[in-house]
């Protein structure tokens, strides 16, 4: 028997209120059909960073979707940085931290494996969904416009070597060592013949501070998610050299992850949270909702940036800010649900772990397949999606992935990928 016997009544009332307010239109399920489906707890504390891809958690909260599935006491709490997110996941909600988060996909593994935790303590974690594909970018300061640095980073190599020789290396920023932005920036630099280990100075900057750091001259380039690239351009400080979707089309990005102890203690609550997030992803992916989506996430409590910095790239409109024609209907638009964007493919997690091995974050002896099996809970994603009446992928791999420079990643042969890339640092 659930600890709160009134929960089913509350859930139905919340659903009726949500429907009356027309918050999500004609959505996907009538909610729970019996008290046995009610979650074991109505509480969860989830973290997020001020990035456009936090939208699924924001919409699930703002549109009453957590309430709809019985999770009426969900708190979605802003985190100052990915390091703070990690610290709060270590603590757990019971220790004053959080139960789960909008998070960089490889961070989940680095926490679970004890690579980035205090005392190298392993904190079991589960990935329940991918929150989005695409939607990140690499921007450079305006002073590099004459170099025409774009998809090919090579034009910056001579400048980087010259700056290094003068004792003032080009400084590039990412958001967390071993994370997604760290990976995209390194991949782009290395593909252009620039060694991220030796040719430039790489630093860590929280996403909301990226524009300010370039404005003051601390950084020359950065990789982060939106809306900070568009804000940079709107403030005429720099331009977008490349979107990450151009590096690897429909690449995986953030994940929705929970501490394993929460999932194991509250399996029904976990499913309820996941269904709410999935339904929010479906809503956020609809073209007719993009303007409202941008209005909602722009609030100070969420991203805290002007709608004009947010909305265009949600719609797939890319102004690179360097004179290139404005790209409309970009094939690299941020997606939350379409074509299984939300599905946490195990093959994608394996690429991140392989890239962490490439650059020495993980040991080359790491049993990556075992680690993926322990952390990736695509089985829970499937269960929730089926409850929503949504289709599920046939397998746990999207197959061989191809990058802009001709390199391929075959998840059945990650060692071959490591051999194929020229620049690397294996631990």
Describe how the helices and strands are arranged.
Blueprint: H1 7-20, E1 43-48, H2 55-62, H3 65-68, E2 73-78, H4 82-91, E3 100-104, H5 105-112, E4 125-130, E5 136-141, H6 157-165, E6 171-174, H7 180-191, E7 201-204, H8 210-215, E8 221-225, H9 228-234, E9 238-243, H10 244-247, E10 254-259, H11 260-265, H12 267-284, H13 290-297, H14 307-314, H15 346-358, H16 368-375, H17 378-387, E11 401-402, E12 408-409, H18 414-420
Parallel strand pairs: 1-2, 1-3, 6-7, 6-8
Antiparallel strand pairs: 3-10, 4-10, 5-8, 5-9, 11-12
Helix pairs in contact: 2-12, 9-14, 12-17, 13-14, 15-16, 15-18
Please sum up the structure shown.
Pfam families: NMT1_2. The protein is of the alpha/beta class and 427 residues long.
Provide the succession of SSEs. Answer: HEHHEHEHEEHEHEHEHEHEHHHHHHHEEH
From the alpha-carbon coordinates, what is the Rg to the nearest angstrom? 21 Å
Question: Helix coverage percent of residues?
Answer: 25-40%
DSSP strand (E) fraction? Answer: 5-15%
How do the strands of the widest beta sheet line up side by side?
A: 2-1-3-10-4
Give the rounded overall mean pLDDT. Answer: 93
Low-confidence stretches: 1-30
Tally of strands: 12
Distance between the termini: 51 Å
- Count, helices: 18
Q: How many strands, what sense, and barrel or not for the largest sheet?
A: 5 strands, mixed
Shape: globular
Structural class: alpha/beta
